[in-house]
Amino acid sequence: MEIQKQILLFFASLHNGFLDALVQLITAFGEEGLLIAFVVYIFWNVNKKKGFGVCMSLLSASTVMGIAKAIIRFPRPWMVIDGLDSVRMSTATGYSFPSGHTTNCSATFSSISRAFKKKWLSRVCAVVILLVGLSRMYLCVHWPLDVVGGLLIGCGASVLLYDLFSSMYDNKEKSIKIMIILGLVMTVIWVVIGILLNGEKVDYMAFEDLNLAFAILSGACLGYALERSRFDFDAESGSLKTKIIRFVIGMVGVVLILEGLKPLFVAVGIYNSVTRALRYFLIGFWACGVYPLLGRKLKLFV
After folding, report:
1. DSSP state of 76
2. What average pLDDT does the segment 18-24 reach?
3. CA distance 212 to 104
4. Distance CA 208, CA 104 (A)
């Protein structure tokens, strides 16, 4: 623990306006907005099978990370080190171990590397993963061991699960059945946890992020099953202009769900742990299922 403290104090000694701004830009590559954008662009516009593999590896890693946080419950650095100059604390939710940014970034970019198997892309992905991990320590929101744990979970999910999901995708009927079962089970779990959170029956810091992971995973599973059984679009079709348009419209939908529903729920007095998780469920359901079906009507997907 003492060595970890000294490492964070060293990073804190480097803080200045320019570096703080630069590192906050880097750490954004481990945040939900950019990661969703990368994944859905591949899924909608590049290669549906590879996008499915990357998406499921990311969501699986995020769920494992949430489970680890709920079990281990290690305190954040600023809770232990008095006067620590932590930056961007608003993005550091839940307990500390493992680093969520590092986990999600590692799972996404290591899966992208495995999917496309290009040396230059693999090197870029490796650099992004390394920089995001370092950024969490520079900002003093995670211990070094949190970052190591995130790297192991994220990269491990890619190594263990990407090929599994890719193989599953090749068996259309089997993959639909598995996704329906998994989606329904995860839905029951996040609804139950949300109810327990609302009743203050479980630790909010331990289970809130985990509940969001269950929610978006369940939405993605059910959305995939709906779209693949009803339409099964071709991601590689369409001109560059068409792909840009369908990406922009799809991301507008993601933003409206994530940012638009919250004030609506607050206004009508129903914003709580269940409805917060519902937003993430709808993001997965929209991205993997509803949007391609709507896009078919607009001739954005074929």
Report:
1. P
2. 93
3. 14
4. 17
Can you tell me whether residue 211 is helix, strand or coil? helix
- Residue 136 pLDDT level (bands cut at 50, 70, 90): very high
Query: In the chain, what is the straight-line distance between the N-terminal and C-terminal CA atoms, in Å?
Result: 55
* Residues 6+ away with beta carbon under 8 Å from 204: 197, 273
Give the pLDDT score at 2.
83
Q: Which two tokens stand for residue 59?
A: 């969501």
pLDDT tens for 227-244 read 999 999 999 998 999 999
Q: What percent of the chain has pLDDT over 70?
A: 100
User: What DSSP assignment string belongs to 140-169?
Assistant: TSS-HHHHHHHHHHHHHHHHHHHHHHHHHH
CA distance 45 to 233: 10
Whether the upstream peptide bond of residue 77 has omega within 30° of 0, thus cis, is no
